[in-house]
Structures are given as C-alpha cells and as structure tokens.
Design brief:
This protein has about 350 residues and is of the alpha/beta class. Helices cover about 35% and strands about 20% of the residues. α4 crosses α5, α6 packs parallel to α8 and α9 packs parallel to α10. Bound molecules: S-adenosyl-L-homocysteine.
Length: about 350
C-alpha cells in the first residue's frame, strides 16, 4: 500500500479520549478543551491560535482533524440551498448539502466515499465504494459548512453519498459525538439515518438508545420489483426490512420515515400505491407510526429513469392519504445545482477521467 494511515484521529475522539491523548504527549488536560473547541468550530490545527506554535505544528504533522477543504461550492439561486464538494485529507471527495427551512438549517451529509449498494437509480453507487468515512470526517462536513456559512446547523440527515449502516461503527460513533454537549450538541430528534435496508444493523441501532429518526428507503411495494431496483433486497427482503422498522418503532416510540422514490412507469401507478398501502398496513396498523416521503426521482444519466407528471405524483400521494397514511412529496431543493447527492462527485470523476 502506498499510504498507511498512521495519524491520530483527534476529530473522532470523545472528550475523555482527547484528554488521554493530550496527557500521553505530555500536555496539560486543558489543552483537550481548547482543541475540542476549535474542532467544533471547524478550525484546523495550524489555526488553533491559543496553542503554542510547537504544539500546533506537532498536531498538524501527527494528527487528523477530519475537517475537509472546500473543493467546490454551489449556491442555488432558486432557494439558497448550498452544495459543497469537500476534499478529504487523502484527496477523495464527498458531497454535503445545506438546506434552509423555516424551522432551522439542515445538513445532508455523506457517510462513505462512493457506495457499494448498487441501487439502480442512484448516482453515488456507480463507481462502487472507495472507502468508509471516519466519524471525524462526518463531523467535519458539518463544522466546515457551518464555519463557511456562519450558521449553526440544527439538524442532520444522513442521506448523502454512502450507506451509513454499511459503515456502522463509524456512523454510531459519529451519532454519539454529534449529539454530545462537548461537540456540536445537535438534538437527536433532529437527526435522521437513512438506510437502503441493512436489517441486522437496524436492530443494532435500535439498541443504541438514540432518539434519532430511522428512515428506510423502500421504493417498491413487492420483492420482485424491489430486488430489481435495489440489490440489497436479495439479501434482506421487504418482510425483514419492515419487520425491523416496526420493531424499531415499538422499541423507541420514534416514528419511522419511509422513503419512496417515484419513477415513471416503474413504481408510480395507482396499483403500486394500493399495493404499498396494504403492504405498510400489515406492519403498521397505526398510520401515524410512520411518515411516507415521496421523492420524484432525480434523473441520473446512466439510469434512464425519469419522474412522472405532477398530477401522477399527487394522485399517488392522495391514494396513500386515503388509506390512512401521511405522505408528503419532497420539495426539490436546489434544482439548479443538482443538489441530489452523488452527482457532483460523479461529475468530477468523469471530468477527470
Ligand atoms: N444509502 C442510504 C442513504 C443515501 S440516499 C439509503 O439508501 O437510504 C438518500 C435517499 O435518496 C435514499 O432514499 C435513496 O434511495 C434516494 N435516492 C438516491 N438516488 C436518487 C435519485 N436519483 N432520485 C431520487 N432519490 C434518490
């Protein structure tokens, strides 16, 4: 291997771990609080001005902060949505989107460089998975964006590049850090983890006792259709996935979110809506145990899929409402900056090829 990672990843440490580290290099404990404070503000080692220059230089040489560099930044003229292409310390890139809602500012972050799930409609998976992100690199997307924008981030959705539950340990460590008062202190109730359906990891997540929202990417109402769109379904079926989601709801009391990407002619007909409602009803007798998010598919050149008309999307939504579910059509934010994740990194890869 050309590069072995020997740097100490300070950005992934809890306060106690950071204190142990500073003591191990012969520094006083209060340095841990100073370093943590800078990291939380998205400031990297060379700029930590209240540390002695020698210590700053040592940290910069021996440690990782996880704070990425802005490779590209796009701001939507339509709604102000900001999309970053961030460069990580090894030069790999991921995308982060910041959306401004009335109730606060939400960031959509990436959990891996690339993805190995192979969903047919998704741009992030086309080149496969390159590597997992470390907790510091998930936090770093938030702190770098927050610093650049001068805005506090109130909520996080793990719906960027990657499958968070295929990078389970790092994702869970990130979730504990980001909700900690020592770090960004973001309320767990304002955090969603979205999964394509790694069933054993959903069961494990349930036991972490976090008040986060579980979001499952369903996208089809029967196994034949789902397996054709999402290879993960061949490993864990819809029955196993919805069973795990129901269990998550029963154990945590947290309403589960169901994502359903509407693809014209594939899964968006009246029959599909009916089949979806009766499928969900089998697991969630109470409609209020879940919320359905309908996402008109974002066309990705390689997939050839497109979204249906506004009318067909509204008809699909109404059909679910009539069956007793709450369903909303996701507003398309930043349409002018291809804000859907995966597309910017993909463009950079193909431009460089
Ligand atoms: N791997 C996770 C999170 C990343 S994607 C997951 O699968 O849930 C976040 C959501 O966007 C998922 O529901 C995903 O299926 C959906 N998605 C991916 N590509 C899309 C596209 N081209 N158009 C609309 N939604 C898409």
């Amino acid at each position: 291997m050309s590069e072995t990672r020997t740097k100490t990843d300070l950005g992934s440490m809890s306060r106690a771990e950071l204190e142990d580290y500073v003591r191990s290099i012969g520094e006083s404990r209060f340095r841990a609080a100073q370093i943590a404070d800078w990291l939380r503000r998205g400031v990297d080692f060379p700029e930590m001005t209240n540390l002695p220059a020698a210590l700053r230089a040592r940290l910069a040489a021996e440690c990782e902060s996880g704070i990425p560099k802005i490779e590209k930044k796009l701001v939507s003229a339509v709604d102000g949505t900001v999309k970053y292409l961030f460069a990580l310390s090894d030069g790999e890139c991921v995308e982060t989107v910041v959306m401004f809602y009335k109730h606060g500012t939400t960031a959509c972050i990436s959990s891996q460089v690339g993805c190995r799930m192979g969903c047919r409609f998704c741009a992030s998976t086309i080149g496969g998975k390159v590597r997992d992100l470390r907790p510091s690199e998930m936090l770093g997307q938030l702190t770098a964006a927050s610093r650049d924008l001068g805005e506090r981030i109130d909520g996080v959705v793990m719906m960027g590049i990657g499958e968070p539950l295929d990078n389970y340990e790092n994702t869970v460590k990130f979730l504990h850090l980001v909700t900690s008062p020592d770090s960004l202190n973001i309320g767990a109730r304002h955090i969603s983890v979205s999964t394509s359906g790694i069933v054993p990891a959903i069961a494990a997540l349930e036991k972490e006792n976090l008040q986060i929202t579980l979001s499952i990417s369903l996208h089809a109402s029967n196994d034949t259709r789902r397996s054709a769109l999402m290879p993960v379904n061949r490993k864990w079926s819809i029955d196993e996935l919805l069973g795990a989601a129901k269990h998550y709801f029963d154990a945590t009391g947290r309403r589960v979110s169901v994502e359903y990407t509407l693809i014209a002619g594939e899964n968006d007909g009246e029959d599909d809506a009916k089949e979806l409602a009766s499928l969900l009803r089998r697991y969630f007798a109470r409609g209020d145990a879940l919320h359905i998010n309908l996402i008109p598919v974002n066309p990705v050149k390689e997939s050839g899929f497109s979204a249906g008309s506004r009318e067909s999307i509204e008809a699909f939504r109404l059909s679910l409402e009539r069956a007793g579910f709450t369903a909303t059509v996701r507003r398309t934010l930043g349409p002018d900056i291809s804000a859907s994740c995966g597309q910017l990194r993909r463009k950079r890869e193909t431009d460089n090829a």
